[in-house]
Amino acid sequence: MQSQMIKTMVGPAVAAILLMFLLPTILETYTLTLLVVYGMLGLSLGLIWGFGGILCFGQAAFFGLGAYAYAIAAINIGESTLPAFIGILVPMVVAFLLGAMMFYGRLADVYMGVITLVFTLILFRFMNSTAGPEYVIGKARLGGFNGIPGYQTLNVPGFPDEYIYGDALYYLAFSLLIIVYLFLRWFLKTSFGRTAIAIRENEERVELMGYDVRIRKTLLFSLGGGIAGLAGVLYASWAEIVTPGLFSLGQSAEIIIWCIVGGLGVLVGPIFGGMLIGLMKFLLGQQSVIDNTLILGLVLVLFVLFLPKGVVPTLIKWLPKGRKNSRKRRRKSQGRNRRSEA
Amino acid sequence: MDLAAVIFVETAYAIASLILISMGLAVVFGMMRVINLAHGEFMMMGGYTTIMAVNAGINIYIAILIVAPLVVGIIGLVVERLVIRHLYGRLVDTMLATWGLSLFFVGIVTMIFGNTTTGISTPISGFQIGDYQINGYNFFIIVLVIVLLIATYALLKGTRLGLIARGTMQRSDIAAALGYDPERVYMLTFMTGSALSGLAGAVLAPLVGLVPTSGGAYIAKSFITVVAGGPSIITGLVSSAASFGFINQVFTFGISPVVGEIALLVGAVILLRLMPQGITGRFFKGKL
Known about the structure:
heterodimer; A: about 350 residues; mainly alpha; 4 strands; globular; B: about 290 residues
């Protein structure tokens, strides 16, 4: 089992590392870093939505929390190692609490959508209104609409003057993405991961078998929050400023679009979706004939109507190797529809 | 005494405007179990239609009450035919598709009108209560909302059309067996909902500076109000709007408008945690 497991990991890992070194020949690493961050953020929602069946309308909240927590901690502490962990931990804990509130209250579909959306809005409104000098955490002023600039960006652990930026930040971000991806591949093979998938398929049945669905969903949600937080930390280090726009509804919508476009139920899907849409936005941003938002909206509508499974699962289905699994996948998508009818 | 009157009017206005902005969404969600996340953009387009109509020389009341609902209703009809009808019964997918539509409309309006603020002045001037100035237009909104609520209730409860609509929502197969085409009923319901959204946007147009992204400000509030209201359309809408409007005003007057907004949102989270099926999922069951 163990060796088989490792064997299935080697292929994707090698491919990913190759990709990591090939991509900079096409695009600047500055742009690529952002795309990798988007991929990570897409992955965080892809995990909880695609494998836990939890549609979170506020994944941006954890992204923003990670970025803000990192920025505030970095101003107060200086050296970036501890702030980076704080940036992951804070959204994780918040996601745990929010998740516990929702899942122990047995909230599902629309109601969960409302709560996560409202939670994002609360953060957005609050952060926007913190312009005054009385909103201070330690040495860090929250800055309201203008956000927080001028914090310590990521540095080599232990050497506060050795900043990780440019190419180095890109390789760091991509390596972290690969590590998180491989970790999740392993994670979904563990009994916890398998139970999570079972919960997505049929929550009631899993519960009748004696599993505590609530704590499992809460933990999965919290893990997703942590990964979004990591994406936030990387973003904060890349952008060198954090603003309340990170919490905006548009940001949350985008993450959902990445997942739909890339495809759910496959870990690569949302990563691919995030990078693809990010790239598309980047290219569209260089022209001014057509509005960016219009294209994004159109993409989302067309995908929901004509390719609801997303690009990656559809591609896998067309590859001969994936054919034999296609029945399994069909059942999966039926499960998704059933849930949404309920 | 004057302050009490002002606070009373302001609270009534807060509740009325919550009902106003949620009405279109409530009809579509309550009757069809479809969440239209492009609702805010329908309102925004209603607002733009009004401003364009007024600038073209049409009387402002005709622009608000007739032109805007008509135009947005037709847009809703097109949207229903092209997108929504393929997604009935798939709640999450409709939410995603309509979210895409909302981005699409923001993009289109930005391309046509540009990213600038437009607006018209209110047709009713303000007046004094003691030391305080009250916006006369607020009364127009309160009265309009009451009329709308009564009209919707009468339409659903009193007319044959309403009966068919309610029947189709409960058991579309039986309605179809009795010779009523569910497709048509859904289509008309969605169109009515869109027209109501357009009307809401038109009514609010004189009060706000309109930008293409204005819709985003409404969608969250109306979404919350409708979902917290639960399955019954009118009772749910009124009860949740009343609770949220009240909470909002208490904190707005007590502390500050921002805290009022946040209190409303926190209140919504607590309310949904306590009543996961919305207010009318627990109380007033079976009411319209």
